[in-house]
Specification:
By secondary structure, this protein is an alpha+beta fold. The chain has one domain. It has helices spanning 18-21, 29-33, 61-73, 91-96, 159-166; strands at residues 11-12, 35-43, 49-57, 80-81, 99-100, 122-124, 132-134, 139-140, 170-171, 178-180, 183-185. It has a 3-stranded mixed sheet with strand order 1-3-2. The longest helix has 13 residues, at 61-73. It binds zinc ion. Zinc ion binds next to strand 6.
């Protein structure tokens, strides 16, 4: 049995306007003005071509596009890429759904400090496959586990991780307090 898809064979995971993609955020106007809504194509975990969207800082637009093209070339699959508004701005819900995203006007988990995500300067990729691993062994999101050999999963020296590092991004897998394996940011 064969599934039908659109004329181009691409499955559309997200097709928002910029206004939809930032609706209800607490971000101030000056932050909103520095953001761009990108349309991105990627290989899905189902092996099919998908199109999604990501809201990023305008200065990082070209690099994020490059990195997505690289992931596609390497056949590195993504769960989905949908702006976090779809999850009511809940990072937990977005992570649990293995959603890749960038902008979310929020604090760093457990602090009163704005995250780099608040400015669209951080990108999370496949957070359920690349969870946060705390020193005490706890893993977030709940129910996730890290299987470094599985498709869509990062580990030290992975070509996608290297590509981010070469462009001057940090990888959360290198953070000292905990390993945030899905997180990349650039200040
Ligand atoms: Zn992150």
């Amino acid at each position: 049995m064969r599934e039908e898809s659109g004329p181009a064979g691409v499955i559309v995971d997200s097709a928002m306007t910029f206004g939809d993609a930032v609706a209800g955020t607490a971000a101030p106007e000056e932050v909103l003005q520095s953001l761009r809504l990108l349309e991105l194509e990627y290989l899905g975990l189902d092996g099919r071509d998908h199109r999604g969207q990501m809201v990023v800082q305008e200065a990082l637009e070209a690099e994020v596009r490059d990195l997505f093209r690289l992931m596609e070339t390497l056949r590195f699959p993504l769960g989905r890429a949908v702006p976090v508004v779809r999850y009511g701005w809940s990072d937990d819900a977005s992570m649990a759904d293995n959603n890749s995203s960038a902008f979310n006007y929020r604090f760093v988990e457990g602090t009163a400090r704005l995250s780099n995500h608040a400015f669209g300067r951080a990108v999370d990729i496949n957070p359920f496959l690349n969870p946060v691993v705390y020193r005490d062994g706890r893993i977030s999101p709940p129910g996730a586990s890290w299987q470094p050999e599985a498709p869509g999963t990062f580990s030290e020296g992975h070509p996608v991780v290297r590509a981010f590092l070469e462009r001057g991004w940090r990888w959360g897998g290198h953070f000292s307090a905990y390993a945030d394996l899905h997180h990349f940011d650039k200040i």
